[in-house]
């Protein structure tokens, strides 16, 4: 599975920890930046990761900024992206199984690396519960976005 990952300066340290975790677990990781704690504009990086998902150049995405909110807003502007801001393993599992989320947004300020590891693992290991009600709801979302 190929993972596109990106962060702004506030999420840089957490991004580095998650990138190491992913590579150690055998994932193919493409890092869209940032590559330091110098200030950057999160929409640029969030859009790049989201476009990689939309264009099917990556299977899942992970975005990190201070709260995770800005990155999730940006990612959800790109067609075919369903970004979910998750703060627990359970929200990560539900975002995948119920909403077929393909981008995980995390807070660099409020999610310690140890907690992020479990959230990322849950997000990547949970499959979408394809079926009547969940599939029907995703179809309705696609109708809204013209996909």
Brief summary:
With 147 residues, this protein is of the alpha/beta class. It has helices at 12-24, 42-54, 69-75, 89-97, 113-125, 132-145, and strands at residues 2-7, 28-31, 60-65, 83-85, 103-107. The chain has one domain: Ribose 5-phosphate Isomerase B, Chain: A (3-Layer(aba) Sandwich), CATH 3.40.1400.10.
Which SSEs are present, and which pair or pack?
Blueprint: E1 2-7, H1 12-24, E2 28-31, H2 42-54, E3 60-65, H3 69-75, E4 83-85, H4 89-97, E5 103-107, H5 113-125, H6 132-145
Helix pairs in contact: 1-5, 2-3, 4-5
The parts where pLDDT drops under 50 for at least 5 residues are none
Tell me, briefly, the overall form: globular
| Rg of Cα set | 14 Å
Q: Could you tell me the mean pLDDT?
A: 94
Adjacency order of strands in the biggest sheet = 2-1-3-5-4
Q: What report would you give on this structure?
A:
The protein has 6 helices and 5 strands; from the N terminus they run βαβαβαβαβαα. The mean pLDDT is 94. It is an alpha/beta fold. It is globular and about 45 Å long. The protein starts with a strand and ends with a helix. Strands 2-1-3-5-4 form a 5-stranded parallel beta sheet, with helices on both faces. The protein has a single domain, classed as Ribose 5-phosphate Isomerase B, Chain: A. The longest helix is centred in the last third of the chain and has 14 residues.
């Amino acid at each position: 599975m190929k993972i596109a990952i990106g962060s702004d300066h506030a999420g840089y340290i957490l991004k580095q920890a998650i990138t190491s975790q992913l590579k150690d677990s055998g994932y193919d990781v493409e890092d869209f930046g940032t590559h330091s704690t110098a200030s950057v504009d999160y929409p640029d990086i969030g859009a790049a990761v989201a476009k990689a998902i939309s264009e099917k150049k990556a299977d899942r995405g992970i975005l990190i900024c201070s709260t995770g909110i800005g990155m999730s807003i940006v990612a959800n502007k790109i067609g075919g992206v369903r970004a979910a801001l998750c703060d627990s393993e359970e929200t990560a599992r539900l975002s995948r199984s119920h909403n077929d989320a393909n981008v995980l947004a995390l807070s660099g300020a409020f999610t310690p690396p140890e907690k992020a590891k479990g959230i990322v693992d849950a997000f990547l290991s949970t499959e979408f519960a394809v079926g009547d009600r969940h599939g029907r709801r995703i179809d309705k979302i696609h109708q809204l976005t013209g996909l």
